[in-house]
Amino acid sequence: MNAELPPVGFDPAEYRARVAHAQTGMAARGLAALLLTTEPEVRYFSGYLTRFWESPTRPWFLIVPAAGDPVAVIPAIGAALMRRGWVTDIRTWRAPAPEDDGISLLAETLRDLAPGPVGVPMGHETHVRMPLADWARLAEMPGVELVPDGGLMRRLRLVKSEAEITKIRAACAVANRAFARVPNEIRVGMGLDNVFRRFQMLCLEEGANWVPYLAGGAEQGGYADVISPAGPEPLVQGDVLMLDTGLVRDGYFCDFDRNFSIGPPSDAVQTAHATLLEATQAGFAAARPGATAADLFHAMDRIVTGGAGGSDAGRLGHGLGMQLTEWPSLIPDDHTVLEPGMVLTLEPGIETMSGRIMVHEENIVIRETGAEWLSDPAPSGIPVIE
Amino acid sequence: MNAELPPVGFDPAEYRARVAHAQTGMAARGLAALLLTTEPEVRYFSGYLTRFWESPTRPWFLIVPAAGDPVAVIPAIGAALMRRGWVTDIRTWRAPAPEDDGISLLAETLRDLAPGPVGVPMGHETHVRMPLADWARLAEMPGVELVPDGGLMRRLRLVKSEAEITKIRAACAVANRAFARVPNEIRVGMGLDNVFRRFQMLCLEEGANWVPYLAGGAEQGGYADVISPAGPEPLVQGDVLMLDTGLVRDGYFCDFDRNFSIGPPSDAVQTAHATLLEATQAGFAAARPGATAADLFHAMDRIVTGGAGGSDAGRLGHGLGMQLTEWPSLIPDDHTVLEPGMVLTLEPGIETMSGRIMVHEENIVIRETGAEWLSDPAPSGIPVIE
Questions:
Q1: Would A41 disulfide with which of A36, A253, A346, B236, CB 3.0-4.6 Å?
Q2: What is the pLDDT of residue A114?
Q3: In the CATH hierarchy, which fold is given to the domain comprising B162-385?
Q4: Can you tell me the distance from the alpha carbon of B385 to that of B240, in angstroms, rounded to the nearest whole number?
Q5: Is domain B12-156 annotated with CATH 3.40.350.10?
Q6: What is the structure's pLDDT at A5?
Q7: Best mutation site among B2, B81, B204, B344 for testing chain A: the one with the most A CBs within 10 Å?
């Protein structure tokens, strides 16, 4: 179905470099280890890639000690897959075990490996993926000291390696091809729910491993919001169809959208689309090392609202990588300084009439001299579906 | 693409009944409210259905007070969609707001609505979806008292309404049709990654809204594990291909699998397949009100291991509904008593040779007089792909 896609996975050197960076950060923060519980956190260091996280039943733990390799403390059902990767110290229990679902084993392992404060991501855009009662139990175990990670995981994941950027570009390329096929595959009269199904199939045909995210809308002259599920209403002349996909290729996301006019676009829609592309270009031009996330917000907001300070969506873009959305946020209050290797979405929105918006989105990476497109930027002129 | 699917969503009466049951449970437990943070918990009472939860950036809160209707405390980007449902008290903030991402608004709302202990799901198979630092901040706010929910959400969600069972059956019907097409769509020589893509497309063609979960394997005489992602290795004669899908139709999952023999099956594979179907039938026969989750485990374990007590997979089935896996677990230690309306998977596994297993899975609902199939149970004889 798809021949030109890059090889999957990473060389162990990639993971060793991540661990080395983490250990430098742990030393600076006085941490004896990191304790990680969520899918992207565990995968970041171990390469452990499975859709089994969809099941909320079992907790999974990865410990990155201040020195030495990571240690996995995981349900036995995951041992075979973990053993395929580079992590060799794998300690398992037979989960689910509601009375003690890995907590004693985890505490024992932490005591073995990491006498001292154990950093856990607790800040913005994180959560701890284990029952809160088990967290409280762990925190009270002798010899276990759980503390905030001081923003270390955020810091590490903000800047992508060249190998990660290659994977995000590959995901974007899949979506580029899927979007290019939309005008030939989608017709007036199709229900939006079937448009969503067909578009997910196009993403799969073009090389997505799965399509965790598809949102969009189709209403007259714009859409009311960008997160609702699709209903059965058919596409009719005058609708603006928007499709926004976060597809996954080899564990990395793209996240961008395209707008389509059902029949000839109105002047208002053409103008809005042109303004969104102009705002995106302004964000792209502003995106260089030393600029802040807030700078990019203002560069785009000046064009879409005249500098009013944004809308209910709350931001005009965000980080992207192992998750659909990552730090930073393109908002006035996020002063994260951009660095080479950061991958971002530019996502300006505009009101086309009362209660109707249009949103455009592209993906970029920050380079030494400025930004580079990861998605193929949309050509001027909204594409038309007849 | 699919004509005979039932209508989407629920009547508000369904949500009112859920709230009434919750309020009865709150009264018994002395709770002033429930505070909910995860996708299924929020949706259970509000009907709020969106794939936007894929983004980890923003927290979402739903409060169910001891009397009166639920109150949503959510990012402004979600207000339009929430307003389409039956919840009318919707309080929003412009997220992301890293300095105070809804915490003050949530505390204020809790103080308004619910002086007294606020129950939060903290037990097995739950997590709190918000930054732990924000949780700690909330817990210290004056007038906010956060306590365990005493298993109330688990209790409520264990037993499905007739309307929920209809939705799970519809999801199962989609997968039934997709599995039936596999022998005509999958060929020897296809790479497993492309088999996975093609199968997801079949699920979408047959009416899935999305396919959050697909796992499986294809190796000689069985497979090493059931949670690994698909690689490019082509299907060859003698492989046993297993596809296990959790597709979603209107917010409800199915979760069952099918095995296929690539070319004529060996005697060992035929015997293993027959034994798995026999075990599933034994689980089905044991599944009636008054039996326990452990009883179902033993009924199947007797057949697949001779009563050895299971394997590393840890369980032989589980609950199913708004999530791919829910309580209870079919394990020796889960003594949950089955009741009419519980939806379960029966999922026995067997070793076919050293390092190779086969797993079979069906979905059932407990009725007054016994179990009823939700998936179309697999006919005897493993299907063959040429």
A1: A36
A2: 79
A3: Creatine Amidinohydrolase (3.90.230)
A4: 10
A5: yes
A6: 58
A7: B204
Task: Inspect the interface and report whether the beta carbons of B124 and A130 lie closer than 8 Å.
Answer: no
The percent of residues above 90 in pLDDT, for chain B, comes to 94
Q: State the nearest Cα–Cα gap between B59 and chain A, in angstroms.
A: 8
Chain A 265-304, residues with CB within 8 Å of chain B CB atoms: none
Task: Say yes or no for a CB contact (<8 Å) between A131 and B148.
Answer: no
Query: What is the distance between the alpha carbons of residues B161 and A265, in angstroms, rounded to a whole number?
Result: 46
- What is the number of residues in chain A? 386
Pairing of strands B356-359, B349-353: antiparallel
B231 has a chain A CB within 8 A of its CB: yes
Query: In chain A, positions 104-123, which contact chain B (CB-CB < 8 Å)?
Result: 120, 122-123
Q: Which CATH number fits domain A12-157: 1.20.58.2140, 3.40.350.10, 3.10.20.30, 3.30.565.10?
A: 3.40.350.10
| Chain A CA closest to residue B9 | A231
Please tell me the predicted confidence (pLDDT) of residue A6.
Answer: 63
User: Which of A1, A42, A46, A57 should one mutate to test binding to chain B, selecting the residue with the greatest count of B CBs within 10 A?
Assistant: A57
* DSSP string for A22-54: HHHHHHHHT-SEEEE-SHHHHHHHH----GGGG
Strands, E assignment, chain A: 33-36, 61-65, 71-75, 89-93, 117-120, 145-148, 210-220, 239-249, 252-253, 256-262, 317-319, 326-329, 343-346, 349-353, 356-359, 362-367, 370-373, 384-385
Rounded to whole angstroms, how far apart are CA atoms A326 and A318? 6
Chain A nearest CA to B130, separation (Å)? 5
pLDDT tens per residue across span A61-106: 999 999 999 999 999 999 999 999 999 999 999 999 999 999 999 9
Shortest Cα distance, chain A CAs vs residue B96, angstroms: 6
Per-residue pLDDT at A1 exceeds 50: no
Give residue-wise pLDDT tens across range A125-155.
999 999 999 999 999 999 999 999 999 999 9
Q: Shortest CA distance to A234 belongs to which of A203, A268, A262, A260?
A: A262
Tell whether A46 is within 8 A of chain B (Cβ): no
Q: Does A99 touch chain B (CB under 8 A)?
A: yes
What does the domain layout of chain A look like in residue ranges?
12-157, 162-385
What is the model's pLDDT at position B3?
A: 44
The answer to whether the pTM exceeds 0.95 is: yes
Residues in chain B where the model's pLDDT stays below 50: 1-3
Chain A residues within an 8 Å CB radius of B58: 314
Q: What are A196-222's pLDDT values in tens digits?
A: 999 999 999 999 999 999 999 999 999
Mean pLDDT of chain B: 96
